[in-house]
Amino acid sequence: MSIEVRNGFDFIKLFKIKKGGIVNSFDTIVLQMPEDCHKIIKKEAFLQNITADIETGEHDIKPILKDMEINKMIGVNNLKIDEKKNILLELSAKVLKERYAEGINRNTISQVFVNINEYKIIEFNIPRSIEKAIIRKRADIFYDYEITDSINIYLNEMRLVSNRNKYFPKKYGTGLFFETYFDSNHRKLKVYDKEVEYLLPRNELIRKYCPKEKFKNKMRIELSLKGLGKIREEFEVFSGDVRLITLLNSPKNVLYKHFNLVLTTDKLYTVPRDIFSPKVSINETLSELGRQKLLEETRYDLSTVKRILKSKSKGEPTSQLKRMSESKARHAAKVLHYDFARIKAIGKALSKL
Question: What is the pTM for the complete model shown?
């Protein structure tokens, strides 16, 4: 195993894969399956959505599952049939009921369709559905990491080392999310207390099947990939359809890659675009941007702070930078108390999926 050390962090360039390959587990996926994968059992569960072409007068009839029916189906967020009789299906891992904590992966995918078939609204041919299903729009990958300290300790470390040049940390319920601002193919890394999230009212139904002990002391790390282009790029599917079975069997450890990208890369802060407005005083600029926030966003790089202040303000920020250097010293003393062992341990766990 080859190890590269940069900025005090271990980067595993070549990591060993367990026998059987990586197991990518999904919390949410959107699927499309052709007509020969299913048959409708309960026709009255569907509404007939009729659309007409004004010019030609032709009508399309698309069956849509009634809200009252879909609300009974745990983990089925959306189900409809298009004009070519393809099934469009948005699934949450909750569809697995007792196996919810495992997520949708190659070991549980059969159970997904078994559970849907039990509602006797639509019946899927399970082998054919797994073989022919293709990914549409979205795929959220996750891993539940067992923590040994308060989750706030982990989150504080992540705030200190996050790559603010591209991924900006924001509060997300009981955790943080790191979101790209500069990418047309959106992706978001979320880190949060899964046990607390599991106890929210929206998860009341799944609690009847999956006990809370499954998520005790678990910190969820979740990567949301939205847009087929991003999914293609991450799993390196450059032609043809993006098949479900391809993602389930993929050797690409996408979650590990992004964890390292977000939390172990050190780059300079990018100057906000709005700094090129008419110049005001240094103090007005600091009042607008926030002294502490500016220091944190620039990772206490005073040369970058000076560049930002001078680009937007009149005069030299000499006295302000002097006070900021004192803040930087206090921050450096605080950082010395961290060895970031927790973040390294998470990266190691992800590398072994």
Answer: 0.69
